[in-house]
Amino acid sequence: MHTAYLGLGSNLGRRPQNLKKAQKLLEECGVHINKASKIYEFEAVSRVRQPRFLNMCIKVQTEHSPQKLLNICQLIEKQMGRKKPKPKRINYELPRIIDIDILLYDDLKINTPRLKIPHPRMHLRQFVLKPLNDIAQGVKYL
């Protein structure tokens, strides 16, 4: 089994329910949640005005590879109604029903066009660091 840390965020619709639904769908896909942080509210990181986010982090156990875990996260985002940005639009400029990011996966370092672990900007974002600190004290982030 592998240990991974995921960041979840929602700023559209019924935000608390969106976070719960994403966790349920992850469990149904063989991603077992060991710990969950508290839920925090943060301003969106965007040049475009949008609703505030609810953010949390979860510690999971899985037999899936990092790439398979990414596929599962993206499938859940799509299933829940997340829209992909138009060309030339930065992904974080759009409000979203759910956002699921792989922050850490074991002690792996991955740098491909599709997947970067550790997440390259997590150390700059309080909406990741604060909930991650709830469940990952003593874990090396970088």
In short:
This protein is of the alpha+beta class and 142 residues long. It is built from three helices and seven strands, in the order βαβββαβββα. Helices cover 27% and strands 27% of the residues.
CATH fold annotation: Alpha-Beta Plaits
Distance between the termini: 21 Å
At the fourth level of CATH, the homologous superfamily is: 7,8-Dihydro-6-hydroxymethylpterin-pyrophosphokinase HPPK
- CATH class reads Alpha Beta
**Biggest sheet character:** 5 strands, antiparallel
- The strand count comes to 7
Describe the structure in your own words:
The chain has 142 residues and is of the alpha+beta class. Helices cover 27% and strands 27% of the residues. Strands 1, 2, 3, 4 and 5 form a 5-stranded antiparallel beta sheet that branches. Strands 6-7 form a two-stranded antiparallel ribbon. Strand 6 (110-111) and strand 7 (116-117) form a beta hairpin. The longest helix has 14 residues, at 15-28. It is globular and about 40 Å long. The two termini are 21 Å apart.
